[in-house]
Design a protein that fits this description.
mainly alpha, Leucine-rich Repeat Variant, 2 strands, about 0% strand, binds 2-acetamido-2-deoxy-beta-D-glucopyranose, adenyl-nucleotide exchange factor activity, signal, ARM-type_fold
């Protein structure tokens, strides 16, 4: 990891040096100044403590990359850098332009190591069992940033790097597990290729168990990764079901002592799964949607005094109401949706009296009204469907 940091530092220094020079040039591009010679500059450089090896410096330039790097390191002190920028103002326009070209070429040659290289370093660090915890965390944090672009996530997956990260889910250190889940979730987001690869490692089962962690942060990241892995992924959703992921969701939604963030994420995932079902009508509906205990754990959330959670629960119920497996009579009789919606209406009216909550409460109330209408509509259709055959007899 130190290698990466050194590369980053050098690159930054070069950019600073480069910008410093082009600023000086811009100010003076009209020319007409008394410029100093390269010799003067060398003298000034010595005075200000800038280290430039004699053989490295040709006409105030640098003959080698090494020299350039030494110069950049020597200029790491901001005061020195500023002085160096002022020195450059004494150069002729030609010299400045030449310098600038040299610097451009150097920056091109030096370039940051490619993301692929950085990911490779991080992964081989992780793959080393004698790596310190601190370095392990740092490697995972690097990967967290590196896997954001979809191409990088794909590369990391192809090179087997994500397998190494998935292995970290079983680490004894909670922070390592948390970071590994975060990396896997970030890499899998909206990426069917990576989703498939990560699902192939068996990480989903481990992640589902991790949501039970006593560390809220670890649980939150694990649930994030679970969602990212199965979102719009039918195969992933089937695995999720087979691994009893719905029981985990149910436990989280019902457990009042859990962090509210976790419960919000859980009900959001329920809505997401239902939405995916609505979009894929040819896929047979997951059995969880006809599980009355599961449905009740969603409905019960609208009684929890947290507008965000209530809103997400209402959104989920609204989508669930579009599914064939969701019996409106079960929602009414077993889940008590009718009374829950009525109680919520009163509670929202109270919230609307509070100036700070009014706008949000009004939005949630409008959603609540919508859910009530859809629910009654669906109940009515069921009743009339049942009534028709008997009327015909
Ligand atoms: C840049 O050059 C102009 C003359 O064109 C001069 O007046 C000015 O002082 C110079 N700027 C700096 C920052 O030295
Ligand atoms: C991790 O290390 C093992 C040996 O301990 C090696 O076989 C494997 O290829 C390494 N994996 C990666 C991705 O570097
Ligand atoms: C693993 O890490 C240790 C300590 O950082 C280091 O000495 C060793 O060379 C590394 N092993 C490999 C195979 O990179
Ligand atoms: C989570 O913990 C609860 C209680 O400790 C347990 O009943 C449940 O089986 C656990 N769930 C998972 C998925 O490990
Ligand atoms: C609810 O969560 C708390 C805190 O994580 C846990 O200790 C407890 O076992 C959970 N209760 C149930 C019924 O799973």
């Amino acid at each position: 990891m130190t290698a990466i940091n050194i590369f980053r530092c050098m690159f930054l220094l070069l950019v600073i040096a480069f910008v410093g020079r082009s600023t000086a040039e811009r100010v003076n591009s009209s020319g007409g100044m008394v410029w100093s010679t390269a010799r003067d500059e060398a003298g000034l450089a010595e005075d200000s403590g800038v280290v430039i090896g004699e053989q490295d410096q040709i006409d105030g330039g640098f003959s080698s990359l090494d020299g350039m790097l030494h110069w950049a390191i020597g200029n790491s002190d901001p005061a020195t850098l500023k002085e160096a920028a002022q020195d450059s103002q004494k150069m002729s326009l030609d010299e400045l332009q030449k310098r600038q070209l040299e610097l451009k070429e150097l920056v091109e040659k030096l370039k940051m190591p490619s993301d692929a290289k950085l990911m490779q370093i991080a992964v081989s660090d992780l793959n080393n069992s004698s790596l310190s915890l601190e370095d392990r965390h740092r490697a995972l944090q690097e990967l967290l940033i590196l896997v954001e672009p979809i191409d990088n996530a794909n590369d990391l997956s192809k090179s087997g790097g994500l397998k190494v990260v998935a292995g970290e889910l079983s680490h004894s250190d909670s922070d390592t597990r948390k970071l590994a889940a975060w990396v896997l979730g970030t890499a899998s987001q909206n990426n069917p290729f990576v989703q498939e690869q990560v699902l192939g490692t068996g990480a989903l089962t481990t992640l589902i168990k991790m949501v039970n962690s006593s560390s809220t942060e670890e649980a939150v990241k694990a649930l994030f990764a679970v969602s990212a892995l199965i979102r719009n992924n039918v195969a992933g959703q089937d695995m999720f079901y087979a691994a009893h992921g719905y029981i985990m969701l149910q436990d989280v939604m019902r457990n009042e002592s859990l962090d509210i963030k976790l419960r919000r994420k859980a009900v959001f995932l329920v809505g997401d799964l239902a939405e995916c079902q609505v979009q894929n009508t040819e896929k047979s509906e997951l059995p969880i949607f006809s599980d009355r205990v599961f449905l009740k754990s969603v409905v019960d959330l609208i009684a929890v005094l947290d507008l965000d959670l209530q809103e997400k629960a209402l959104e989920a119920i609204k989508t669930l109401l579009q599914l064939k497996s969701v019996e409106p009579s079960v929602l009414r009789d077993f889940c008590g949706l009718e009374e829950a919606l009525e109680r919520m209406k009163l509670q929202l009216e109270e919230s609307m009296a509070d100036e700070n909550k009014r706008d949000y409460a009004e939005d949630v109330e409008s959603l609540r009204g919508e859910v009530e209408l859809i629910f009654h509509g669906k109940l009515g259709r069921v009743i009339s469907k049942k009534a028709t055959p008997s009327a015909l007899i």
